[in-house]
């Protein structure tokens, strides 16, 4: 503690003032060095049990393009998590594109969304798990002058419970990694350039907590693949700290299922879809990880304007 040697306004007061200014300058220098190397980790504001890492300021939504002017590519859109995102985006008036290797799953998706939204749903049969397949799917998607403004990647959320590692083959591990990690990379490599230089665009990864710990016996390869997907999302945020588009990750630390199959510890894919659609529409934050550990967390993040 500093002790004044003079009266009010005397030498002691001046000495205290100088020390305070020096401390403020040191804090600013440390913050600048921190932001230079770790821009996405500047703040970690906590909202309830939902944690935001990487947000540097309060939300400031951009509202220059209407949803009807935007085309969102949902990678994995024919799956459980992706279908909820697709429906919620269509409900908000977005045009939505979905690529799948399985035409039957695309037909099932078309029967799931409201008939009135079908003119806004664009489906392509293709394989984004390889670079060549992703390039071909991109060429098909962009026919007719379509322009993708946003991408949501929900490819890394498949389930696997094949048993302990010593009972598995290298081929099985390769298969899991292709599903959870490699397809996330190949699709990002092909589709990220479509949105990265657009300040009104976005690229959003949907991940889960399986990569942080073993969920249950026999799910070890799931943990390996999911951990790779989490690491890849971190690498992208840190390697591209200044891209104009909004680059975010929504991490759902719960099971996700359809409404009719809900169980304790699970959340409806429609609730996840509403949250992701809100994030895409608002474009309030960038280089941020939005964690949700419960359905209440998603509602809190939405009510606070983060989603």
Automatic annotation (TrEMBL):
<dbReference type="GO" id="GO:0005739">
    <property type="term" value="C:mitochondrion"/>
</dbReference>
<keyword id="KW-0560">Oxidoreductase</keyword>
<feature type="region of interest" description="Disordered">
    <location>
        <begin position="1"/>
        <end position="31"/>
    </location>
</feature>
<dbReference type="InterPro" id="IPR002347">
    <property type="entry name" value="SDR_fam"/>
</dbReference>
<protein>
    <recommendedName>
        <fullName>Peroxisomal trans-2-enoyl-CoA reductase</fullName>
    </recommendedName>
</protein>
<feature type="compositionally biased region" description="Gly residues">
    <location>
        <begin position="1"/>
        <end position="12"/>
    </location>
</feature>
<dbReference type="Pfam" id="PF00106">
    <property type="entry name" value="adh_short"/>
</dbReference>
<dbReference type="GO" id="GO:0008670">
    <property type="term" value="F:2,4-dienoyl-CoA reductase (NADPH) activity"/>
</dbReference>
<feature type="compositionally biased region" description="Basic residues">
    <location>
        <begin position="19"/>
        <end position="31"/>
    </location>
</feature>
<dbReference type="GO" id="GO:0006635">
    <property type="term" value="P:fatty acid beta-oxidation"/>
</dbReference>
<dbReference type="InterPro" id="IPR036291">
    <property type="entry name" value="NAD(P)-bd_dom_sf"/>
</dbReference>
């Amino acid at each position: 503690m500093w002790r004044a040697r003079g009266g009010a306004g005397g030498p002691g007061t001046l000495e205290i003032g100088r020390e305070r200014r020096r401390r403020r300058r040191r804090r600013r220098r440390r913050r600048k060095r921190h932001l230079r190397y770790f821009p996405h980790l500047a703040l970690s504001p906590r909202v309830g049990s939902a944690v935001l890492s990487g947000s540097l300021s309060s939300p400031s939504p951009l509202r220059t393009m209407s949803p009807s002017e935007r085309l969102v590519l949902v990678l994995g859109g024919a799956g459980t998590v992706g279908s909820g995102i697709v429906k919620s985006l269509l409900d908000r008036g977005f045009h939505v594109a979905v690529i799948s290797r399985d035409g039957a799953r695309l037909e099932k998706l078309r029967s799931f969304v409201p008939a009135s939204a079908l003119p806004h749903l664009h489906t392509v049969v293709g394989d984004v798990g390889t670079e060549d397949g992703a390039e071909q799917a991109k060429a098909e998607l962009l026919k007719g002058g379509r322009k993708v403004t946003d991408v949501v990647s929900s490819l890394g959320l498949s389930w696997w419970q094949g048993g302990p590692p010593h009972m598995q083959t290298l081929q099985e591990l390769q298969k899991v990694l292709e599903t959870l990690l490699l397809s996330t990379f190949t699709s990002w490599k092909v589709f990220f350039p479509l949105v990265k230089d657009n300040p009104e665009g976005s690229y959003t990864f949907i991940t889960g907590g399986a990569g942080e710990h073993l969920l249950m016996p026999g799910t070890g390869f799931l943990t390996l693949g999911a951990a790779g997907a989490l690491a890849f999302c971190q690498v992208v945020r840190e390697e591209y700290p200044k891209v104009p588009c909004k680059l975010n990750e929504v991490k759902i630390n719960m099971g996700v299922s359809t409404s009719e199959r809900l169980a304790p510890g699970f959340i409806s894919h429609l609730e996840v879809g509403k949250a992701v659609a809100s994030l895409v529409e608002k474009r309030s934050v960038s280089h941020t990880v939005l964690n949700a550990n419960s359905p209440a967390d998603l509602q809190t993040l939405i009510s606070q304007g983060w989603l």
